[in-house]
Design goal:
The chain contains six helices and five strands. It is of the alpha+beta class. Strands 1-2-5-3-4 form a five-stranded mixed sheet. It has a domain of 163 residues: 60s Ribosomal Protein L30, Chain: A, CATH 3.30.1330. 16% of the residues are buried. Helix 3 runs antiparallel to helix 4. It is found in: Cell membrane.
């Protein structure tokens, strides 16, 4: 039997609850918040789907920022003194503040809910074009809306008109030259023709050469060979809509006739005689918008004012207005 001084041994047993005692209830709070947010989200979707445009606009107006654009200055009884002295807001100088206040949603509140209402004129970028290079049309679609599209279309039309005009000039020059060469009695006169593309249009010139004059000396009477050249020019331009101007030129040798008749009158009379020949060969008189006599003021060879090439008649086929606008 043990002695009274021996201490009894006590054994304490602790039963565990499955090993999950370290988890708390925080997940339940997070889950509840998640479910509340989802419910609010689906409720918002339902409201947007079930509401008409008028109700949506009212809802958008409710959430639209309504910031004062008067620099924080009040207009009621307080007269702005709630903010600071003189109604100054955030340390600025009142109405002259450089701070740009946000305006999102103020112009069109429904754009807050529908992104299709925000971009009325999207910017279109063409990555590549599979059409042949000759068939492509150059156009730029601007972000400025219909006005930008119309400007691009007008620019494309003007460019096409310019290309058509360039092609028409080539055809006209080839037609006149070929017809002169095809006429036996005029073959040796092809060197008297000169084609220049000036700022006013295509200038067709009949020039004198050494030993060969297109007009009788000192006279406005047109020689037969010159009349034939003018007939070919008239046949080439008769069906075109372009306006025509005619100018006469002389060399620097003074007119030898008596009286006040000079190179000015001579060049003008030769231009007018050219006009009559063109009209006789079918060119509408209404298309001829100008007749001028320039005497020796615009020589082809300024270094030799008395050179025979300076004596000439110029018939200018004017630029069409559509091609002129693209210059």
């Amino acid at each position: 039997m043990a002695g009274n001084n021996e201490q009894a041994i006590i054994i304490k047993r602790i039963e565990e609850d499955g090993g999950h005692g370290h988890h708390g209830g925080a997940w339940k709070v997070a889950y509840a918040d998640f479910m509340t947010a989802m419910m609010a989200f689906f409720l918002l979707l339902w409201i947007l789907a079930a509401s008409d445009e008028e109700k949506l606009r009212g809802l958008a107006d409710y959430f639209t920022p309504s910031l004062s654009e008067s620099g924080g200055r009040g207009e009621g009884l307080l007269d702005g003194t709630v903010l600071a002295e003189d109604g100054v807001m955030s340390g600025t100088d009142g109405p002259a503040t450089p701070v740009q206040l946000p305006s999102f949603g103020q112009e069109n509140p429904l754009a807050v809910f529908d992104s299709r209402l925000r971009d009325s004129a999207p910017n279109v970028v063409v990555e590549y074009d599979t059409r042949p290079e000759g068939d492509r049309e150059v156009a730029t679609i601007n972000e400025s809306g219909p006005d930008g599209i119309e400007a691009a279309q007008a620019a494309a039309e003007a460019e096409r008109a310019q290309e058509d005009w360039e092609a028409a000039q080539d055809r006209l020059e080839q037609q006149i030259t070929a017809q002169v060469i095809a006429t036996p009695e005029l073959q040796n006169l092809s060197e008297h023709l000169r084609f220049d593309r000036t700022e006013n249009g295509l200038e067709i010139q009949i020039v004198d050469k050494t030993g060969s004059s297109m007009f009788a000396t000192g006279s406005a009477r047109i020689a037969d060979k010159t009349r034939d050249l003018l007939r070919i020019i008239a046949d080439a331009v008769v069906d075109l809509p372009n306006a025509l101007t005619i100018s006469g030129h002389t060399d620097s040798v003074p007119y030898s006739g008596a009286g006040t008749y000079s190179n000015w009158e001579l060049s003008a009379d030769r231009a007018n005689a050219t006009r009559r020949v063109l009209v006789e060969n079918g060119v509408s008189a209404a298309r001829i918008t100008g007749i001028s006599g320039l005497a020796d003021t615009a020589p082809l060879d300024p270094a030799q004012p008395d050179a025979p090439e300076n004596r000439r008649i110029s018939v200018t086929l004017r630029y069409p207005e559509s091609a002129r606008s693209s210059q």
